[in-house]
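Q: What structure does this chain adopt?
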Amino acid sequence: MGVVRQPCSTLVVLGVKEIVLDGRVVSYTIKRSDRAKHTRLEVREGTGLTVVVPRSYRLGKIDELLKGKARWILRNLARHVWEKPLSTARELRSGDTVPYLGRELRVVECQAFGCALSANLAQNELVVSRESDRERLDLLLERWYRAQAVEVIKQRVDRLVTRLGLSYRRIIIRGQRTRWGSCSPKGNLSFNWRLIMAPEPVIDYVIVHEVTHLKELSHSKRFWKLVAEECPGWREHRKWLDEHGAELNARLVPQQ
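A:
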């Protein structure tokens, strides 16, 4: 009776690298396969993006491949890695805490019949008034976050562009799920309202990043040099977003 040999694994991990896709830093693992005939991309929860290449594939071509598939990669990362499934997100209740500028605020609810809906910051509490339980608490807070984002982010952008002698067309606050900010070729600056939950140095990094695009639209060496001049700790702040971004996205159920 012959010996049955188990097939050995043909996948070899070559390393982990990073690439910037549409303003988002994406980490990916490179694996070489003896059996693969074509390059393939895999996005899985827990492991993120993996690039599997055949033995003869030139690794220097990977960046070009990923940039060509940027939309697919970001969409699938958002679906499987960055976002917490909505089915597991519990609706916010009075007594819960929510992040704001890097600190936790306790939500205190009070019913105010005949009064306008409102949310007011008082030290470490966020006091929310609503007339009935039919008004979703998390949706009311999202409106408050958006209003705060407009005020806080615009003030910081205006201060920075004035000092740098730059100008922008307008600021847009959005609810995009895969980006914290963007700058269009026309000079429009867009920011994710959830950014207001992050610590202030992290917010400032994203603002510096997008305002720098008013000078240098691409992520060139000159771009990162300019970012470093304004924000020396940008790598640390970018890492914070990579590690905590999914948590911020899951703190409030998205508005329908």
